[in-house]
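During data preparation, a discrete fold description was generated, as reproduced here:
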Amino acid sequence: MDAGLLYEPPFTDLHYEGLDGVFGADDADGIVSIVRSFNEAVGVA
């Protein structure tokens, strides 16, 4: 999954900042980190 999608609808429908606005910057960074780790584990660029 492209982590950039977390900054598009439906997240921006909930808050204009997307993931950061929905979860807060620190939690959003953690979520993006998990997504990137998962992508690496399954071989997604």
